[in-house]
Amino acid sequence: MKSIKSLLVLFCAILITSCSTDDVEDRPVIEAIDAPVLVSPTNGAIYNLSVENKSSLAERFVWSDADFGGDVEINYAVQMDIAGNEFANPVELGSVNSENQLAVSVETLNGAALSLGAEPFAAVPYEVRVKASVGSMEMLSNSTPITVSAYTTEAPKVYVVGSFLFDSGYGDNWTPANAVALAAAGFGETNFEGFVNIAQENAEFKILPTNTSFDGDYGDTGDNNGDFSGTIEQSDEVNAGTPDRSAGYYFVKVDTDALTYSLDKTSWAVTGSATPNGWPGDDAVATADQDMTYNADTKVWEIDVNLVSGEYKFRANDAWAYNIGKDNDGDGFLNFNGDNFSVDTAGNYHIELDLSNPRAYTMTITMN
Fold first, then answer.
1. How far apart are CA 239 and CA 218, in angstroms?
2. 255 shares its domain with 288
3. Are 51 and 153 in contact (CB under 8 A)?
4. Which long-range contacts (CB under 8 A, 24 or more apart) does 365-368 make?
5. Among residues 295, 359, 309, which one has the least CA distance to residue 332?
6. Residues 6+ apart with CB under 8 A from 220
7. Phi and psi dihedrals of 52, rounded to 5?
8. For 15-32, what is each residue's pLDDT tens digit?
9. What pLDDT digit, counting tens, does each position of 156-182 carry?
10. Residue 324 shares a structural domain with residue 221
């Protein structure tokens, strides 16, 4: 019996050894023999990108096979970097397995250019290449120079930084990262606007081109005596301030071309036929707006109010100079002078008006 068991153990060992040897013999030897060659695009290809064509094909990248010495699956990734950066921080445009081409859309190429720090609508030189890899082994193709003019749909911003930030719920004072953004109407525009909570008497501030440093900051052109001029400059400037040195929730406008700025204090309310006092009328008391309260923690105006079937909208300072209604232009945000909102079911509602994102105002309404 012991002899039989010994023979069985020996047989299994031989079988295992035989299988392991076969596996090793069948396994291909991986070695870097020939790198891929990028053949398309050609040197100096130019891409003028536009948002209207974002879904279109920008380029079909084509390359020759890499040779790793065996029949193995090869991953090919197309990389892009700023010209002259030697691909120190490349962005990947996409990857495929064991194929010789990659279709890249306008939107993808544009996103890569912007992530590499491209100035929108300016011709910027880049380089592209293909990385072939099997496991941890890699080979790189030749690099090809291209030029990309990227687009952006994001409106430029400037930032309000000052002594009021901490008291107003934004963070530490005079800290660029905590500065409050104002947005322009579109790329290339210089008319910035937005709402800023300045919950501090005698507050002072400056306007920053970015929220990373004070480089290129704008200040008031007047004397440093608290009598603010409403005009700005970038040299020999003093701190700007509110018109009467008072605290408040301000609608701030800055034009970096006209070099002007203005602040209008606002306090927001709900009004309309759906509200308890109806639309404003000659009797200011009987038709008074439903005043909202500003929440510095959530940065929204809010109210709990009884509503009936009807219409309503938001307005500031018991007047129509600043009123906000529906999204009339279809961009997903509320509009100044927009259409009225409607209520179908009577009840007590919680309403929030969020003006904290410049030119991207929103509201929510929920029944309590």
1. 9
2. no
3. yes
4. 365/341, 368/304
5. 359
6. 228, 229, 231, 232, 237, 238, 239, 240, 241
7. -65, -25
8. 444 545 455 455 567 888
9. 999 999 999 999 999 999 999 999 999
10. no
Residue at 29 is within a domain? no
Average pLDDT over residues 129-142: 96
Q: b/e string for 238-258 if b means 16 or more Cβ within 10 A?
A: bbbbbeeeebbbbbbebbbee
Residues 260 and 274 in one domain: no
Query: Tokens for 351?
Result: 């309403």
Tally of helices (H runs) and strands (E runs) in the chain: 2, 28
The residue ranking higher by pLDDT, 325 or 224, is 325
Tell me which residue of 262, 254, 248 sits closest to 316, measured CA to CA: 248
Listed residue (184, 173, 233) closest to 207, CA to CA: 233
Note whether residue 312 is domain-resident: yes
What is the maximal distance between C-alpha atoms in the chain? 114
Closest CA to 323 of 335, 310, 341: 335
Amino acid in the structure at residue 220: D
Give the predicted TM-score (pTM) of the model: 0.70
Which tokens in the block code for residue 192?
A: 């910035």
Same domain, 244 and 287: no
Could you tell me if residue 2 is inside a domain? no
Q: What is the CATH number of the domain that holds 81?
A: 2.60.40
Structural domains in the chain (count): 3
Q: Are residues 90 and 133 in the same domain?
A: yes
Structural domain ending residue among the three candidates 149, 183, 218: 149
Please give the residue range of the domain that contains residue 135.
38-149
Among 220, 246, 266, the domain-final residue is 266
54 lies in some domain: yes
Which residue type occupies 111? Answer: G
Take residue 163 and report the two structure tokens written for it: 């002594």
How is 284-316 classified by DSSP, letter by letter? TTTT--EE-EEETTTTEEEEEEEE-SEEEEEEE
